[in-house]
Each structure stands twice: as structure tokens, then as C-alpha cells.
């Protein structure tokens, strides 16, 4: 048995690795062939063929064992690269097919750069609104504070 692999050079180790891989393949196939011969002999002793033994049982076992499907985690939504200047709810990441509103914009003589600029302006506006102190104050309404008295009901019909 090989005792000290550190004494081998890299090409020698690669050659040894290839020889080991070949020997593994040879021994695996020899074991499979020997096992197959033993199973065929055992089936013949009972008056059966190997196909008769494995045929129904193998398909039944395959039917019973459900195959696990690989599910991938959903990809996060990409930030919009293009946004409609007047309708801020219309946005497109720039990937995939162009939405109809982008095609209509371009057909009416609009430039794609204008939509990109609109998206940049909208993003800056959202950042400004998020950093305003009023945005934090709106989160601490009396309903959010447990010690505050409930608001008096407002009658719409008087």
C-alpha cells in the first residue's frame, strides 16, 4: 500500500489518480456482473427468469416512490430601470419583453432614455420621502401607542 503521498510529484499523483479511477470502474463492473450472475442463478433455481422477478416488482416500486422535484427559491424582483413619467405605477426592469406601455411610448415618438430618467427621479423622490422626519412620525400614531385613549367615533350622518 502507498504510505507517503507527499513524496510523489504532481504528475505522478495525477497518473496515480487516473489509474485508481480506472481500477474503480473495472471493479464496479466486475461486482455488478458477478451479482447479476448470482441473481440469474437464484431465479433459475426457482423456475423464473430475472425479468420475471424484477419486472413487476421494479415497476411497482418505481410507481410507489414519488420522485422529489427540485424547487428553486423565487428570484427577487429587480428594481425598475424604466418608469412611465406620468403614471408611476407603470415600471419595467428592462429585462424580458417590453411592456405594452413602453411600446406605445416609443411608437408615439418618446425616447427610452426619458423613461430611464423618470425612473431615476422617482427613486430619488422615494428616498427623500423615506428620509423625512414626517415619515417616522406618521408611524407613531395614537393607534400604535398602547396607552393612548381610543379616538372618538365620527358620525358621517348628522
Automatic annotation (TrEMBL):
Keyword DNA-binding listed: yes
Taxonomy, superkingdom: Bacteria
Keywords per UniProt: Cytoplasm, DNA-binding
Compositionally biased spans, kind Low complexity: 135-158
Keyword Transmembrane helix: no
Localization of this protein: Cytoplasm, Nucleoid
InterPro entries named in the record: H-NS_C_dom, H-NS_C_dom_sf
A Pfam family that the UniProt record links to this protein: Histone_HNS
Segments forming domain DNA-binding protein H-NS-like C-terminal: 72-117
Region (Disordered): 61-94, 128-158
Family: Belongs to the histone-like protein H-NS family.
UniProt protein name: H-NS histone family protein
Phylogenetic classification of the source organism: Bacteria, Pseudomonadati, Pseudomonadota, Betaproteobacteria, Rhodocyclales
Amino acid at each position: 500500500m502507498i504510505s507517503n503521498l507527499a513524496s510523489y510529484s504532481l504528475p505522478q499523483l495525477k497518473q496515480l489518480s487516473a489509474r485508481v479511477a480506472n481500477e474503480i470502474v473495472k471493479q464496479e463492473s466486475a461486482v455488478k456482473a458477478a451479482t447479476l450472475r448470482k441473481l440469474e442463478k437464484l431465479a433459475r433455481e426457482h423456475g423464473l427468469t430475472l425479468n420475471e422477478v424484477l419486472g413487476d416488482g421494479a415497476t411497482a416500486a418505481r410507481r410507489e416512490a414519488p420522485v422529489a422535484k427540485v424547487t428553486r427559491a423565487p428570484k427577487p424582483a429587480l428594481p425598475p430601470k424604466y418608469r412611465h413619467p406620468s403614471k408611476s405605477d407603470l415600471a419595467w426592469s428592462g429585462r424580458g419583453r417590453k411592456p405594452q406601455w413602453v411600446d406605445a411610448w416609443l411608437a408615439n415618438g418618446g425616447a427610452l432614455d426619458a423613461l430611464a430618467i423618470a425612473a431615476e427621479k422617482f427613486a430619488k423622490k422615494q428616498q427623500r420621502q423615506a428620509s423625512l422626519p414626517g415619515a417616522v412620525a406618521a408611524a407613531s400614531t395614537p393607534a400604535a401607542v398602547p396607552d393612548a385613549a381610543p379616538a372618538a367615533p365620527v358620525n358621517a350622518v348628522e
